[in-house]
Amino acid sequence: MIILKSPREIEKMRLAGRLVADVLEMVADTAAVGVTTKELDERAERMMREGGGVPAFKGYQPEFIKSGPFPATLCTSVNSEVVHGIPDGRPLEEGDLLSVDTGVELDGYFGDAAITIVVGDGSIEARFLADVTRRALEAAIGMCRPGNHLSDVSHAVQEVAESEGYSVVRRFVGHGIGTSMHEDPPISNYGEPGKGPVLKPGMVLAIEPMVNMGTWEVDASPDYWRVCTKDGSLSAHFEHTIAITEGGPDVLTASGGEGGL
Ligand code: MG
């Protein structure tokens, strides 16, 4: 069941979303050669708690993961890691493609967003993959209008990614979000347009394209968090929490100015 949010609830979700955006901006500014993902994680947790929020990923335990709850505030997925990488003590290296996903609970409401950054100068290929993934998310956000179907959002991601010769991960999806981090509906990053629920004002969606340079297939062990591309190719990930309004998409995890990524 898709739970519609009132304008007042959407304003509360915007506060959660802004905190997520601020944390990701700090991470993007701090990530550099020699910095560890563990250091980024500690700073992120401190900033979230100082902002009155609770890290939403830390302690998260879905039934199918047997290695224990997620231990960190950030998911940090480097290079061929797709999602759910765990921060560690390895210093980031020149050219690493770092995806960072994080969520917060603030005053009972959740925000969820992800960015991908290239550490140092990096390769043109890595930068282009990240850029295409961001553009795929922008295209998907553009479809977040009342009257469109949910799969129009999915199709927009697929179209942008595949037109550049990349593939979209099929096993993991975006989701509705509100007073829980994961609500209905699940949001695929591929599919035929014109299918699924009709979008309505008050729906709030966390849309998160995961785009691989090679095959769309991933290795996901049933008992461990980290997910990697099956062929070892690079993978990028962007996410925003978006409210559907009469006037179109309202990006709740935008940093500062309107609609910024
Ligand atoms: Mg998410």
What does this structure look like?
Residues 257-261 have low confidence and may be disordered. The chain is of the alpha+beta class. The chain has four helices and 15 strands. The strands form four sheets. A five-stranded antiparallel sheet has the order 8-7-9-14-15. The protein has one domain (7-257): Creatine Amidinohydrolase (Alpha-Beta Complex). A hairpin with a 2-residue loop joins strand 14 and strand 15. 27% of the residues lie in helices and 25% in strands. The relative contact order is 0.19. Bound molecules: magnesium ion. Residues 112, 175, 206, 208, 239 line the site of magnesium ion.
Strand order in the largest sheet: 8-7-9-14-15
Q: How much strand content do the residues show?
A: 25-35%
Give me the strand/helix succession. HHEEEEEHHEEEEEEEEEE
Which oligomeric state applies? single chain
Stated plainly, the CATH topology is called Creatine Amidinohydrolase
In terms of per-residue confidence, which ranges show pLDDT below 50 for 5 or more consecutive residues?
257-261
